[in-house]
């Protein structure tokens, strides 16, 4: 500005004077994308004049160059379980917004382990898993432009065995997986090397040369299994799986089949009382210097201390003195090993848990036929579970009581049925009709079940003898023949639950399995196998008509034999 006298210069920013600035030129630094008004005022004694500047700064989004070159459209490999951190530092005027997408869709943060930090500048996953694999895009945008930073995340895995059973082959002393195979020369053996990983591991097979102490690669063997024919020189093989995250090795030792043999291979269950001594026997046939035995308790090594736990001189018997029922019970196992392999035997040592009788149940209703009623009680542990019959040493006495009863048991007869045919075809005979007691569960009805009366169809011809009871005359032959009372054409007085068996001149009424014949009358009474002790239930017996059922206490289930209870 010019004027006479020379005008004084003052600067204002959004109406507020900028102190100390009197030059005609104002240098500013763009610090905001907002609209800012700068005013230049020149004044002298003759008046004043203003010039207004309106300033607005905008820059499109920008990502650090080196990060763009290295990371954009790149693949990030991370092991499962490791953290993932994706960066998206950007600048622009106004400050850009940052939004993340996975596989083209917005990332739902709620219920996800994915976290966004510093307004989206960082995406983190604390422990990556297979579901976190995919293409991640950071979309940076402001009014001046848009930019996308892309990562492809792949979740890798180191080489591992595909089945958990391989853990049994781990030798902690050698820190190696060693599978011992028993095979004779001439046998065909398939060696399994079930290794997986991401990327898929490369498999290499080697044959161990015992003379040169080296491993010789087997050309062309790259699969997870190798089939070989055992020879005298077949001593050892090795498979090695490798990927960028490491190697895994498994050794195979092939030996002739001469495993140790236990004298008694049966697994044992031992119950001990406080301060009681117990012994575990793991003796074998024909022990030798190459055979060793070790003891484990709950799969942890167990050694002889010479006082509490004492092993025999050869190590095959373990003696425990003065049992502490709080610490000594557990799962014991002996492992017998020789150069051909090993065998083991398990012992389950349990403490004797205090048990006692439950209170008696209510008396059953009166069995009107037998005129008895029952009640029972159960031997149970303090926690309420039932004790097996073989372990009832702490429950002396009987589990079932029986007493006579004479309750009022009403029953009534059905009407008599039709008369049977006469027992003979000529001469004096007899015919029968019967009735049934309506309720077979109550005491017998008063009176007879069968009614008989004489009959005479016609006189017998002269010189013809009458047939005995149970026989009838064959008019064609003139001979007496047996009547089959069980055929249905003639009457028999077997009850509906009895089995009729014809005999010469008569018949028998037999009872089916689970029933017994009444001592005085031809009736079948149910056999209560539970009270007689003839059942085979390991725990609770429940009588049913003609049989019985076995029940198990809480926490146990009935085995396939329908008799034995086992833990669920």
TrEMBL record:
A Pfam family recorded for this sequence: TSP_1
Keywords: Disulfide bond, EGF-like domain, Glycoprotein, Immunoglobulin domain, Repeat, Signal
Residues passing through the membrane, by range: none
Any GO molecular function: calcium ion binding
Keyword Hydrolase (UniProt): no
Location of the Ig-like domain: 61-154, 172-255, 260-350
Matches recorded under InterPro entries: EGF, EGF-like_Ca-bd_dom, EGF-type_Asp/Asn_hydroxyl_site, EGF_Ca-bd_CS, Growth_fac_rcpt_cys_sf, Ig-like_dom, Ig-like_dom_sf, Ig-like_fold
Domain (EGF-like): residue spans on this chain: 482-521, 526-566
Record GO biological process: axon guidance; dendrite self-avoidance; homophilic cell adhesion via plasma membrane adhesion molecules
Cellular component terms per the entry's GO annotation: axon; plasma membrane
Listed name of the protein: Neural cell adhesion molecule l1
Organism whose genome encodes this protein: Lutzomyia longipalpis (Sand fly)
Lineage of origin: Eukaryota, Metazoa, Ecdysozoa, Arthropoda, Hexapoda
């Amino acid at each position: 500005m010019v004027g006479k006298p020379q005008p004084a210069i003052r600067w204002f920013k959004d109406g507020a004077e900028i102190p100390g600035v009197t030059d005609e030129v104002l240098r500013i630094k763009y610090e905001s994308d907002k609209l800012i008004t700068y005013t230049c005022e020149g004044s002298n004694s003759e008046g004043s004049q203003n010039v207004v500047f309106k300033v607005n700064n905008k820059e499109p989004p920008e990502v650090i160059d080196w990060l763009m070159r290295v990371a954009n459209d790149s693949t990030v490999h991370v092991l499962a379980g490791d953290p993932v951190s994706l960066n998206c530092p950007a600048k622009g005027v106004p400050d850009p917004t940052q939004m993340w997408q996975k596989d083209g869709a917005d990332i739902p943060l709620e219920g996800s382990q994915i976290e966004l930090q510093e307004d989206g500048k960082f995406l983190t996953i604390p422990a990556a898993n297979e579901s976190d694999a995919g293409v991640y895009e950071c979309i940076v945008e402001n009014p001046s432009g848009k930019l996308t930073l892309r990562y492809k995340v792949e979740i890798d895995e180191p080489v591992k065995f595909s089945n958990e059973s391989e853990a049994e082959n781990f030798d902690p002393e050698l820190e190696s997986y060693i599978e011992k195979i028993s095979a004779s020369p001439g046998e065909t053996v398939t060696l399994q090397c079930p290794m997986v990983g991401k990327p898929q591991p490369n498999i290499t097979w080697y044959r161990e040369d015992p003379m040169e102490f080296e491993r010789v690669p087997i050309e062309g063997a790259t699969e997870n299994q190798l089939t070989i024919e055992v020879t005298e020189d077949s001593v050892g093989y090795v498979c090695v799986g490798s990927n960028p995250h490491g190697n895994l090795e498994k050794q195979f030792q092939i030996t002739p089949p001469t495993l140790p043999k236990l004298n008694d291979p049966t697994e044992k269950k031992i119950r001990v009382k406080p301060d009681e001594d117990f012994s575990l026997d793991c003796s074998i046939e024909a022990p030798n210097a190459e055979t060793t035995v070790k003891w484990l308790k709950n799969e942890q090594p167990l050694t002889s201390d010479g006082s509490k736990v004492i092993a025999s001189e050869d190590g095959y018997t373990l003696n425990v003195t003065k049992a502490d029922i709080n610490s000594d019970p557990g799962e014991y196992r002996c492992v017998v090993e020789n150069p051909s392999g090993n065998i083991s035997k398990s012992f389950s040592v349990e403490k004797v848990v205090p048990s006692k009788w439950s209170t008696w149940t209510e008396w059953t209703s009166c069995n009107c036929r037998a005129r008895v009623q029952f009640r029972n009680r159960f031997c149970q542990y303090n926690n309420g579970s039932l004790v097996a019959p073989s372990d009832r040493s702490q429950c002396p006495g009987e589990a079932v009581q029986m007493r006579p009863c004479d309750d009022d048991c009403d029953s009534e007869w059905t009407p008599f049925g039709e008369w049977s045919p006469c027992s003979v075809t000529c001469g004096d005979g007899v015919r029968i009709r019967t009735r049934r007691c309506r309720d077979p569960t109550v005491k017998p009805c008063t009176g007879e079940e069968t009614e008989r009366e004489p009959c005479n169809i016609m006189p017998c011809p002269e010189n013809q003898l009458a047939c005995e009871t149970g026989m009838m005359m064959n008019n064609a032959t003139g001979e007496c023949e047996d009547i089959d009372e069980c055929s249905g054409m003639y009457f028999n007085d077997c009850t509906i639950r009895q089995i009729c068996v014809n005999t010469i001149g008569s018949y028998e009424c037999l009872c089916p399995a689970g029933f017994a014949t009444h001592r005085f009358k031809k009736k079948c009474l149910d056999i209560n196998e539970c009270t007689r002790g003839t059942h085979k239930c390991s725990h609770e017996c429940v009588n049913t008509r003609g049989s019985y059922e076995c029940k198990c206490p809480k926490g146990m289930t009935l085995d396939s034999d329908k008799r034995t209870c086992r833990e669920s």
